[in-house]
């Protein structure tokens, strides 16, 4: 396997800039997740690595070798597509064997490789069957097998779970992690699903409009988003973003919220570099709001329950506080006691908040 380095990847389609200076390093043997919404540039990044797209600028360096101008056939990379890309007229055995036949291997060499790959993917029982007779999970395993059997230096996985149902996606997430562990392979997994990225990626790169805006572990992205976009993208339920204003007067520096005020000294990442009246967004995770906690240092306020959303082991309360919508996560038992229209007492811990500059969206600590 090998490490990968991308330097300033730029790709334009007419006036549309699909990639805008993508810089990225993926370590040897790492499972790296590439997270971003539709049209963020995920597929273009993978296709550029594979050589399927000709770059306008930038370099693709694999294991220290510049592959930027190397033809596709000479790049030892394998790509798994969202659509599976199987040959419907061929059996599982022949689908797996096809890349090896194209590479010129003999029948004696091909047979054990096919059986070894099928055993690894737990699809040995399907070797004589054609794709139409396979389940969605079996088709996905077969598509992965066509990549694995080539023994590539790097795997490029382009939203491979999107077409599966929720239960099967959960199972296949575990399968990908098992395969990565057993193969010790370098994998880049592109997905618009933050749950997939956070649960699978050893590190995650967040793409927005063709740019990498943050790279980090799941905890780093969740606890320390560097801008409003990452804060909104990562976390379920989504982060609460409350408009606030910096006030400076004889009473001291404080942030004015629609439902209260916080002294700036209570926030861990606020500097004094902003003027009176500066506008921000205060990020509060729904899990960090609590019920009726009047402990010192916390801001307590009243809110009305608008909707309750039972989720099994938890319940999400959709609230409104002084005209501001908020979401709060409580236990299933607590949620069962709450009804729409009820007024409750809520509190937040300033230490668990994140402050973003209203105009730029940047986190204050990274401005």
Shape-level CATH architecture of the largest domain: 3-Layer(aba) Sandwich
CATH-derived topology of the largest domain: Rossmann fold
Q: Output the strand order for the largest sheet.
A: 6-7-8-3-9-10
Number of strands: 20
Q: Count of DSSP helices?
A: 9
CATH classification class of the largest domain: Alpha Beta
Largest sheet: 6 strands, mixed
Terminal CA distance reads 38 Å
**Uncertain regions: pLDDT < 50 for 5+ in a row?**
none
Name given to the CATH homologous superfamily of the largest domain? P-loop containing nucleotide triphosphate hydrolases
Which strand-content bin applies to the residues?
Answer: 25-35%
- Rounded to the nearest angstrom, the radius of gyration is 25 Å
Number of domains: 2
Instruction: Please tell me what the overall shape is.
Output: elongated
List the secondary-structure elements in sequence, H or E.
EEEHEEEHHHEHEHEEHHEEEEEEEEHEE
Average pLDDT rating: 91
């Amino acid at each position: 396997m090998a490490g990968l380095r991308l330097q300033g990847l730029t790709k334009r389609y007419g006036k549309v800039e699909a990639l805008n200076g993508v810089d990225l390093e993926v370590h040897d043997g790492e499972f790296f997740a590439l997270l971003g919404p539709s049209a963020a540039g995920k597929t273009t990044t993978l296709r550029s690595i594979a050589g399927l797209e000709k770059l306008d600028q930038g370099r693709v360096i694999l294991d220290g070798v510049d592959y930027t101008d190397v033809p596709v056939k000479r790049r030892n990379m394998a790509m798994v597509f969202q659509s599976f890309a199987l040959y419907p007229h061929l059996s599982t055995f022949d689908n797996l064997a096809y890349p090896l036949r194209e590479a010129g291997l003999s029948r004696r060499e091909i047979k054990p490789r096919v059986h070894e790959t099928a055993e690894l993917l737990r699809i040995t029982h399907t070797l004589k069957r054609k794709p139409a007779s396979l389940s969605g999970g079996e088709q996905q395993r077969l598509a992965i097998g066509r990549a694995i059997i080539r023994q590539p230096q790097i795997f490029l996985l382009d939203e491979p779970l999107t077409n599966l149902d929720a239960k099967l996606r959960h199972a296949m997430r575990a399968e990908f992690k098992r395969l990565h562990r057993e193969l010790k392979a370098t994998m880049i997994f592109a997905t618009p699903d933050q749950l997939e990225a956070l649960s699978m990626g050893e590190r995650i790169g967040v793409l927005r409009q063709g740019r990498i805006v943050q790279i980090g572990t799941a905890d780093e992205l969740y606890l320390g988003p560097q801008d409003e976009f990452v804060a909104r993208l990562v976390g379920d339920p989504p982060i609460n973003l409350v408009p606030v204003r910096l006030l400076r007067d004889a009473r001291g520096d404080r942030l004015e919220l629609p439902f209260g005020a916080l002294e700036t000294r209570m926030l861990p990442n606020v500097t004094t570099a902003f003027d009176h009246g500066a506008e921000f967004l205060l990020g509060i995770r729904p899990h960090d709001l609590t019920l009726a906690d009047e402990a010192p240092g916390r801001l307590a306020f009243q809110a009305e329950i608008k909707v309750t959303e039972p989720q099994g082991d938890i319940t999400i309360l959709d609230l409104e506080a002084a005209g501001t919508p908020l979401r709060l996560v409580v236990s299933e038992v607590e949620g069962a006691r709450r009804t729409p229209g009820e007024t409750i007492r809520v509190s937040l811990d300033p230490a668990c908040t994140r402050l973003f500059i209203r105009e730029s969206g940047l986190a204050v600590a990274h401005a």
